[in-house]
Write a structure and sequence with these properties.
Elements (H helix, E strand, L loop, with lengths): L6 E4 L9 E3 L14 E2 L6 E3 L12 E5 L16 E6 L5 E4 L23 E10 L13 E9 L5 E10 L12 E7 L14 E6 L8 E13 L2 E8 L2 E7 L4 E8 L10 E8 L3 E5 L9 E6 L2
Parallel strand pairs: 1-19
Antiparallel strand pairs: 2-13, 3-5, 4-7, 5-6, 6-13, 7-12, 8-11, 8-13, 9-10, 9-12, 14-15, 15-18, 16-17, 16-19
């Protein structure tokens, strides 16, 4: 009688999964260089407020961080520059495979990353709001960070978004960026965004509390392969499979006969180290009629 098997992977919560960094052009807004402020941003498409009468008014741009002795020096600025975005409706910057910038009216395709099946994604951005700037924002002003894809008509479709609401509690100082994240869970083959190019957008979503500006810096994007047991087989009375995960992780292989039991009641079969991204596993036991398997990540 063939063994009944369940292929799955479970994280311990002791240590996070390793992630692969995805390069975003001009991610910390160091270009173009400026001595104070510049209304242009290389690599990023700058989106003006759609109903703004004066289209020459710049709502986004880059600025130079002040020297350490200056009271407005941002102590955790990545590099020497950051970006400003005024709190007016729909002002935004975005970047994807088909976006443009002020120097390139046609896409350069420099940001070439896609939502891959079996991977999860996380974007992190340093944000500075507050009410103590020269042009203060009101409490309750909102900003959206999102990961998106373009549909067949080139419309931007959000996959995941995080909303940030300005408050004195959230931003107690004007000199330290606070990290915010937006996450996309493991991409499934049936997801509309599977295989589509990734887009990153930072969007002003305030409509009533207009005024002031956000500072932003250090946009980071990472992907993580969700651990999974693949290609289960049963040969000569023994179960085999392939563990897929981020390279370099260690896993404890466990087996049990009852899925409702806690993992502490499962049998420990051994430890495998996934050096290259996939590693085979063979259960040394044979002649089993029913067994379930899981892989638990180790520190």
């Amino acid at each position: 009688m063939a063994a009944a098997v369940c292929a799955m992977a479970v994280g311990t919560g002791v240590c996070g999964l390793q992630a692969a960094t995805i390069t975003i052009p001009n991610a910390s807004f160091e270009s173009p260089p400026t001595a104070y402020a510049n209304p242009f941003i290389n690599s990023w498409q700058q989106v003006p407020q759609p109903d703004l009468n004066d289209q020459t008014t710049f709502l986004t741009g880059v600025f130079s961080n002040q020297p350490p002795a200056d009271p407005f020096h941002i102590d955790n600025c990545d590099g020497s520059q950051a970006m400003f975005l005024f709190a007016v409706p729909q002002a935004a910057i975005l970047q994807d495979y088909d976006s443009t910038d002020w120097m390139n009216p046609t896409p350069t395709h420099a940001f070439d990353a896609a939502f891959e099946v079996g991977k999860s994604y996380r974007a992190t951005v340093g944000v500075l709001g507050g009410t103590n700037f020269a042009i203060p924002m009101q409490e309750g002003t909102t900003l959206e960070l999102s990961l998106y894809y373009r549909d067949n008509a080139s419309n931007l479709v959000n996959v995941a978004a995080t909303s940030i609401t300005n408050s004195g509690d959230l931003f107690p100082t004007a000199t330290h960026f606070v990290d915010f994240q937006v996450e996309v869970p493991t991409v499934q083959a049936s997801d509309a965004w599977a295989g589509r190019h990734i887009g990153v957008r930072i969007l002003s979503t305030t409509y009533e509390l207009i005024g002031g500006y956000w500072d932003l810096d250090n946009v980071r994007l990472a992907s993580t392969i969700t651990p999974v047991l693949l290609a289960p087989g049963y040969t000569n009375g023994q179960f085999s499979c392939t563990l897929q995960s981020e390279p370099g992780l260690r896993f404890e292989m466990l087996a049990g006969t009852n899925l409702e039991l806690p993992l502490s009641n499962w049998t420990r079969l051994g430890v495998v180290t996934n050096i290259g991204g996939t590693v085979p596993f063979l259960d040394p036991a044979s002649g089993l009629t029913r067994r379930f398997y899981t892989a638990r990540q180790l520190p």
